[in-house]
């Protein structure tokens, strides 16, 4: 060998083959590359550990490496025929062919290539054998049993130092399981896409149905609101006549029997109005249209006003209505709704108590120890107040207590029940308490009485408010400074008579117009301090008349106060009146005190009616100032 160092190599028959140094080096490089390739496909093959025994020969190491690979290793010389070709024993495990029979048929490999892959494999084989380009390809082989085996094959041509082809070696990995997993994944992906597509179509269909259902619900809600507005107007209009004329009647000299009959009429009309108001309130709450007021008030004014209002009713039932002393303060919230909750609970207590007393308790709740000035400020500005109404009445059975806050539900639902009512009062109270940031609950023992508790959040007023010290039972004209010149625009004759009787009783001067057009003519002829404007009228309605008045004022620079006096009592109606340019609002049927309070509020707001003072000597009958009290629920 020309004195050159040689390296022995054993073939598969343990025959020693001697290699030139350059060839041995190239073979070692191929061995390293093959091991790296095998390790990349099968990481479980560990790197060789340091030898503790004599080193193996190159041939031993090469054979050990080949036999532990989970792949088919092949070797084919470019010269000398296929007698020196080699394929590893794994071919039997992967394809079912023995080494001998595979090597005995040079074209067996090509024959076992899947028909669909033969053309591509042939082109790649030509590039490898003829042009020496490395081969990296994935294709299918048919095993002895006819099954399909996916192979990932990588092969490379090894050349002599002079560049001539020496041999080709390579490795083929069985990736059938991986391909099966890919196919399963693709199938699952396709199924998922199909399901997503189907679900998307379902959702689109459901969305269309939802939109249609929403439109139908909105249409139904509008119809319901329109129906409630119409019914409210149609019921309130005659109710205004009944209540108003009854009040006027009660202010005249009557025989005892006549006064008793008139009081019965008024009480029945009040009960009917209570039912109407409850149904409207419940409808607002259910439709989400309830809006709370935020205004400053004295807490004591609300509580004491409820006590003054309901004390006569309690006395008529031989009951004591009392309140424990509580710290009065100026707060910000909705006094009207707070008063409504207290009236509902106290009225219920009076109704269900035959003897004993009803006690109202008010306490300020504390959130606990204060750790910072910021928390102290927040606690001070937003306080929780705890109210309770305790009676000594019949009590509520334990199994009925959970249902008393449900709509149209009463503890006594029998046909022979002793107490009337719709069962809406507690439901409305519970919803109002919730809207005001609190909770409501009860404690009751049959035969011993009931205590209703509720909490509400009331902010502390920035400035202290003066308590209401105005005498109840009198409506002094001095609050207006002088009789007012009032234009009443109203088409209903009964409502005209009621308003005129009440206003003239207090010394005011009233001019009547039957529709908006007549009202505009009256304003053109005379000067008025304020206009009481009905909304629903023939020829020209109240909104149109108000718009015409405001248009005239833009040219003259004046402003005539206009108060809506209408049976349209929904929140949208109030907003519509304000949007039309009206300064105030009174809902029919109205209490005389409510009307005068609104006149006074608008007068102060607009500065109207400030003329020479004229005192009225005739006292205003106390009966005219009776506050409206809801009938027991």
> Judging from the principal axes of the Cα atoms, what is the shape?
elongated
Question: For the CA atoms, what is the radius of gyration?
Answer: 49 Å
Show unreliable segments. Answer: 1-19, 368-381, 413-417, 470-478, 609-633
By DSSP (H or I, 4+ residues per run), the number of helices equals 18
Could you give the count of β-strands?
19
Characterize the main sheet: 7 strands, mixed
Please tell me the overall pLDDT. 78
The percentage of residues in β strands lies in 15-25%
Category from helices, strands and their pairing: alpha/beta
Span between termini = 123 Å
Portion of residues within helices: 40-55%
List the helices and strands and how they pair.
Elements: E1 7-10, E2 16-19, H1 21-41, H2 58-68, E3 71-77, E4 86-87, H3 90-95, H4 99-104, H5 108-111, H6 118-129, E5 135-142, E6 148-159, E7 165-174, H7 176-250, H8 256-286, E8 295-298, H9 299-316, E9 319-323, E10 330-333, H10 335-351, E11 356-364, H11 373-381, E12 382-391, H12 398-401, H13 425-435, E13 440-445, E14 449-460, E15 485-489, H14 493-505, E16 509-513, H15 516-525, E17 530-533, H16 542-556, E18 562-566, H17 571-579, E19 584-587, H18 592-606
Parallel strand pairs: 9-11, 15-16, 15-17, 17-18, 18-19
Antiparallel strand pairs: 1-2, 3-4, 3-7, 5-6, 6-7, 8-10, 10-14, 11-12, 12-14, 13-14
Helix pairs in contact: 7-8, 7-14, 8-13, 9-10, 10-13, 15-16
